[in-house]
Amino acid sequence: MSKVLCPICKKVHERIENGSCPVHGLSSPYVYDFRNSDDFLKTETSRIKKERQINGLIELVGKLQAIIINVEKDRVLATTVEFLRTTGYHYQVAFENKDYLTCVLKLKGSPDILIRCRNQEENPFRSFNLHPKALNLPNTRLETYIFQTPDIREYFRYHSTRGVRFIGDDIINTDHYRFVQTFPSSYTGISYAVIQWKDQEEIYPAGQDEILKWNIPKPEKGYLINIRELDHTATRVRARDRDPAIIEFMELTCYNFDFAIYVELFNSITNVARLSDDAFAMVFTSGISPFIDEQHSGPTEKFIRNYGPRVHHLAFRTENIEKTYRSLKKDKQEFLIGLIGSPQQGLKQTFTETSPNSLLVKEYVHRYGEFKGFFTKNNVTLLTGSTDKQ
Ligand SMILES: [Fe+2]
Questions:
Q1: Please, which of 38, 217, 302, 341 could form a disulfide with 348 given CB 3.0 to 4.6 Å?
Q2: If DSSP states are collapsed to H, E and C, what string results for 302-318?
Q3: Residue 126's domain is classified under what CATH number?
């Protein structure tokens, strides 16, 4: 049955008599047959670009500064050690206050990774985590993307006026930065945040925080230097939420929908949003059509049924990928799939098994010199298929 997608509330509604959005009463919402297509997204991308221009937002949100991965209390250290042995990141500092214990991981030229647990019960993300295969880790997910902004007051003012809900009544003001984050998105369970640094040094702990005397050495494995910056992350969303999730992300940042790869075999679409060719890319993966049942649905819709909408993997640009892959395997890292692709096709990629600490998969990706694209359909198909094991 056809439905309508309201361009104001971005929600899909059952078609009613006069074809209007039941909330906004708009008489010409988009008719949506509920197999995703890119037409609506392309129209919205150009609308959002125009709005950014009119409202002076073009440079209000910049590059990705950090991601926050929240884990269970007894897994902060294990998650940190895991990142140190499977990526190029180094441990910088761990600090604690009444709300959080946070471990900061750094890699030059790459967004920071903040691994954290809560010191109090309240968790606005918990309801997003309560799905069959995630029930044993009810506080675990990649929760927040933090982007740089040159003017946090203007960001907060503009989006508050639009009706965006932020956690806390006001901007958080610490020794070294100002920060504000949205409530988790109903489409993705992700919060978007902005940070404005007060000084050059980019220091996360504040004066009243306790600096923990943790000493977490980097494993002496030469191949880890091959694993470079965060290239992209991929978030899995329900088929019906693909467009609203991407539109919401574009409206809260300066990213634009770039392209989508349809994998009909697995009822899956890989959608890429980018800020520029060389910046971190935000990928959303959804079904083409909604979940039917375990037997007939593809790995993307099944993953969401089992784990809820959430970030599925973090991809790291990797040099000497063959040797790095072999070395990781030798050091007991398990993979969902072997190294796929070739220099002729332009790129090689692989997926690790799901982390028992963070529920995240890591991807290693290498693009060869002449390759002008971002993904290839062949690799996307094989990678998507490999996640059926999850
Ligand atoms: Fe990926």
A1: 341
A2: HHHHHHCCEEEEEEEEE
A3: 3.10.180.10
Q: Are 24 and 6 in contact (CB under 8 A)?
A: yes
H runs (alpha helix) in the chain: 39-54, 76-86, 126-129, 152-161, 242-252, 299-307, 321-330, 377-386
Is 253 found in the same domain as 191?
no
Is 176 within a domain?
Answer: yes
CB–CB of 192/252 below 8 Å?
A: yes
Q: Read off the pLDDT of residues 56-104 as tens digits, 9 standing for 90 and up.
A: 898 999 999 999 999 999 999 999 999 999 999 999 999 999 999 999 9
Is the residue at 216 inside a domain?
Answer: no
- Give me the half-sphere count of Cα atoms (radius 13 Å) on the Cβ side of residue 213: 0
* Across 216-235, average pLDDT: 96
Q: Identify whether residues 9 and 158 lie together within a single domain.
A: no
For 8-47, how does the pLDDT look when each residue is reduced to its tens digit (9 = 90+)?
665 666 555 566 677 777 665 555 554 567 888 888 889 9
Distance 73 CA to ligand 1 centre (A): 28
Pairing assessment for the beta strands 100-106 and 112-118 based on DSSP bridges: antiparallel
Distance 173 CA to ligand 1 centre (A): 35
Residues 226 and 365 in one domain: yes
Alpha-carbon distance 49 to 61, whole Å?
13
Residue 306 CA, chain-centre distance (Å), reads: 18
Rounded Cα gap, residues 230 and 182, in angstroms = 23
Give the Cα separation of 179 and 203 in Å (integer): 13
Q: Which two tokens stand for residue 259?
A: 């392209």
Residue 39 lies in a domain: no
Q: State in Å: Cα 47 to ligand 1 middle.
A: 27
pLDDT at 56: 87
Q: Is 332 left (phi over 0), alpha (psi -120 to 50) or beta?
A: left
Domain extent, residue 180, equals 64-211
> Is 125 found in the same domain as 255?
no
Q: pTM of this prediction?
A: 0.90
Cα 174 to ligand 1 centre (Å): 34
How many residues are given for the chain?
390
Query: What is the tally of structural domains in the chain?
Result: 3
| DSSP result, 95-117 | EE-SSEEEEEEE-TTS-EEEEEE
206 and 229 belong to one structural domain: no
Structural contact between residues 226 and 324, judged by C-beta atoms closer than 8 angstroms: yes
